[in-house]
Amino acid sequence: MPLPKAELHLHIEGTLEPELAFELAARNGVTLPYATTDELRKAYDFEDLQSFLNLYYELMAVLRTEQDFADLANAYLARAAAQGVRHAEIFFDPQAHLSRGVSMGTVVEGLWRALGSWGSPRASEAERGGERNHGISTRLILCFLRDESAESALETLEAAKPYLDRITGVGLDSAEVGHPPVKFREVYEAAAALGLRRVAHAGEEGPPAYITEALDVLGVERVDHGLRCMEDPALVERLVRERIPLTLCPLSNVRLRTVDTLADHPLPAMLDAGLMCTVNSDDPAYFGGYAGDNFTAVQQTLGLPEDRLRELARNSFLASFLEDDEERRAR
Ligand code: ADE
Ligand code: ZN
């Protein structure tokens, strides 16, 4: 039995496996610049975040209809459930779809078709716990692309307004360096005023100062990645004191060369420092593993003992946006 866990850092577009990419391409008449799934997999050799993002955005061309988004999310839920995931807070990147003429409604309704509202306070009894959503409770987090303009982020939030009953929070992702959190102050203020929860990627490739800015300017409750906090002892002390959760993604860090090898990953030092760490998969189709695979990898390569693994699993529920009673049920 895999350890029950929550996944808090997962880009649904990053769960697009090569087989599904080709299936959707055929269904939608999209020609991919790869002849076979093997050829596509060979392109998964990344130098940094940007080289990954180039392929990530390119492959999104196959996602066109509500059913495509539903199929994508269903495939993720099946894999995640098999690895012990009981709750998933799922990022999606609407700007990457709106720019291709795919509407916010297509994306949100499609994802919702698969995710349903299992465990959501808004769910009817009939909607809860259905086989079709694999017994995983979910939340949706709309991410703004930080390499797009602040105006575009505001327009995206506006486009999401008819769907806010299905969206729990906002996040910030894509190319980090040169796009500091402060650029998105206004849209985060607007999101907070709408009652949305706030998270942001910070300190993946960007400097520790971006983590501080995400906390102070954007008011984030969790930091996605946050790896580079280890370069700033005063920041580490603050994150520990304020119990700010970090959603780490070890296999992603290796594939995007944020760390040299998994053996060099600072997770053990971060736990020893008292940081509230969680382990997640980021873009599992591209980085070689889902949530359970990330747990297994850190157990085997970093030699994390059982109690540390249990701490990581417990943190994942504590750091989630589940209500207290839901959290107990999910565990
Ligand atoms: N979008 C998808 N995966 C990402 C990551 N690891 N960092 C920033 N943006 C992303
Ligand atoms: Zn991410």
From TrEMBL:
<dbReference type="InterPro" id="IPR001365">
    <property type="entry name" value="A_deaminase_dom"/>
</dbReference>
<dbReference type="Pfam" id="PF00962">
    <property type="entry name" value="A_deaminase"/>
</dbReference>
<dbReference type="GO" id="GO:0016787">
    <property type="term" value="F:hydrolase activity"/>
</dbReference>
<keyword id="KW-0479">Metal-binding</keyword>
<feature type="binding site">
    <location>
        <position position="11"/>
    </location>
    <ligand>
        <name>Zn(2+)</name>
    </ligand>
</feature>
<feature type="binding site">
    <location>
        <position position="283"/>
    </location>
    <ligand>
        <name>substrate</name>
    </ligand>
</feature>
<feature type="binding site">
    <location>
        <position position="201"/>
    </location>
    <ligand>
        <name>Zn(2+)</name>
    </ligand>
</feature>
<feature type="domain" description="Adenosine deaminase">
    <location>
        <begin position="4"/>
        <end position="329"/>
    </location>
</feature>
<feature type="binding site">
    <location>
        <position position="282"/>
    </location>
    <ligand>
        <name>Zn(2+)</name>
    </ligand>
</feature>
<feature type="binding site">
    <location>
        <position position="9"/>
    </location>
    <ligand>
        <name>Zn(2+)</name>
    </ligand>
</feature>
<feature type="active site" description="Proton donor">
    <location>
        <position position="204"/>
    </location>
</feature>
<dbReference type="InterPro" id="IPR028892">
    <property type="entry name" value="ADE"/>
</dbReference>
<protein>
    <recommendedName>
        <fullName>Adenine deaminase</fullName>
        <ecNumber>3.5.4.2</ecNumber>
    </recommendedName>
</protein>
<keyword id="KW-0862">Zinc</keyword>
<dbReference type="InterPro" id="IPR032466">
    <property type="entry name" value="Metal_Hydrolase"/>
</dbReference>
<keyword id="KW-0546">Nucleotide metabolism</keyword>
<comment type="function">
    <text>Catalyzes the hydrolytic deamination of adenine to hypoxanthine. Plays an important role in the purine salvage pathway and in nitrogen catabolism.</text>
</comment>
<comment type="similarity">
    <text>Belongs to the metallo-dependent hydrolases superfamily. Adenosine and AMP deaminases family. Adenine deaminase type 2 subfamily.</text>
</comment>
<keyword id="KW-0378">Hydrolase</keyword>
<feature type="site" description="Important for catalytic activity">
    <location>
        <position position="225"/>
    </location>
</feature>
<dbReference type="InterPro" id="IPR006330">
    <property type="entry name" value="Ado/ade_deaminase"/>
</dbReference>
